Structures are given as structure tokens and as C-alpha cells.
Amino acid sequence: PHSNAAQAVERNIFDKIQNICASVVRDLTTFGLCVVDDFLGHEIGSLILEEVLRLQKTGTFSDGQLVSAKTHGKDVKTIRGDQITWLDGKERTCRNISMLISIVDAVITRASKLPRNGKLGNHRISGRTKAMVACYPGNGSHYVKHVDNPNQDGRLITAIYYLNKNWNRETDGGVLRIFPEGEFWRDNVADIEPLFDRILFFWSDRRNPHEVQPAFTTRYAITLWYFDDEERTAAIAKYRSESEFFLQIQKCLHRVHEM
Ligand SMILES: Cc1cc(NC(=O)CCC(=O)O)nc(C)c1Br
Ligand SMILES: [Fe+3]
User: Fold this and answer.
1) How far is Cα of residue 221 from the mean position of the Cα atoms in its chain?
2) What spacing in Å lies between the alpha carbon of 231 and ligand 2's midpoint?
3) Whose CA is nearest to atom 2 of ligand 1?
4) What does the alpha-carbon distance between residue 57 and residue 51 come to, in Å, rounded to a whole number?
5) Segment holding 84, helix H or strand E
6) pLDDT, tens digit, for every residue of 42-91?
7) ipTM
């Protein structure tokens, strides 16, 4: 039962989705990345943040990966890196995160269907990963420079929604530094602050190596990866045949042992 106010919010958001799609297509095509601020508005953004904080309190986050902090080349201590949990958006306790997911789905789906546009037009996007909710503990943990999809695993677009109020890069760090390929960028980098209610889209492949600089305040983000149909189908087929291949090898080795 939607109240009039909720209906008004929903209409407002779907209006916003229209013009966000156009800028996503234009910016992805031109710059390889797209930043949209004030994506859902303060109220809905805060509801999403509350759900993430509740998830963290109820301990659903995995223990962050252990990263060794080196000083003068010596492993001095291992610190906890980002803690993550995966949501498919159907969880009853995460209605607002589910709404975020369906809104980002709507943006990506519409953007991929916009008439005659850049590279996005040639891609059919019909699937995505679950939503990865990440929390950097703010103990100086960072994320090393990497490419999300270096070997054609099917992921075309990375979408990251940030939840950090009053973020100040000078004191809090945690900037996402992207090293975009492409004419426009030359040797420049794109420093993206993980600001509250900001969403970032970028090509997941080698066009966008990126790193998270050390964060000194707890840093939350929700990431979705959208699949290019063709590449994903091929990746699954490849994976199946490879695992089939390794199963054959194992059987042979097993027989050898039995001889
Ligand atoms: C687990 C995992 C996390 C990330 N996250 C980022 O790159 C940080 C983006 C940000 O929070 O600004 N990337 C990959 C390829 C994997 Br796998
Ligand atoms: Fe990444």
C-alpha cells in the first residue's frame, strides 16, 4: 500500500532515472566512467545506510581479508582489509538495499536499450552478480590496484554506491583512484571520493585499473557487476569445458594411482 508521499518519491526517482541513463551512456562512452551524485536523495540513502549498519552489527559481514602491512619491506602486522557480505536483494530485512538494486537495474537496463548510442548499444545486459556490501574498517586498510574483469569473465559494468556521510579525503583517505585508459585521460587519474549517495559506473575490464587508498574512517560501499550476455555465456562455456578437462585429468591420475 503506497502512500501518496511514497508514490511521489517513486515518480520522482523514475523521472531521475530517465536522465541518469542518458548521462551514464554518454559518460561511459566518452570517459569510460560515470559519477552521479545525490542518486536517491538523503532520506532513502540514509535508510540504505541504516540497513548496512544493521548488517554489520548482526555480524553478517565476513572477516575482512587479511592484508600484511609492510613497513620498510618487513611484514610487521596483518591488518583486516575490507569485510564483505553478498545480498541478492530479496532478503526481507534489506528492503531499502533491494530498492537500490532494482533502481540500478532499471538504470542499466534502460541505458543498454537507449537508441543508437556508443559501445553500450552493442552490449546486451541481462544479468548481474549479487550485491557486494563492503566495509573498510578504517584502520588504514586499502585495496591494491587491480582490474575487476581482466580475463573476460563476462562482467561489463561495475556499479558502486557509496554511503559515507561527511567524507573528507584529507582526513579520511579512502579515495578510489582509477587509472582510466582512453584518449581523454592521457596519464591523468580519476580520484573518486566515496561520498554519501554517490553512484559510480565504470567499465569492469582492463580499461579501468583502480585501487582504494588507505581509509582512516569506516568506509561503506555496495557494488554490483553487470554481465555482457555474450561474454558471460562464453565465459560459462569456457569454465564448464575447463572443469570438464580437469575432471578428466583427475580420473586419469586416479586410475594411475589404482594401477
Ligand atoms: C572483492 C573486490 C572488491 C573490489 N573493490 C574495489 O575495487 C573497491 C571499489 C571501492 O570500494 O571504491 N574490487 C574487486 C575486483 C573485488 Br574481487
Ligand atoms: Fe575493484
Assistant:
1) 8
2) 19
3) 148
4) 10
5) strand 83-87
6) 999 999 999 999 999 988 888 777 766 666 767 666 666 889 999 987 88
7) 0.95
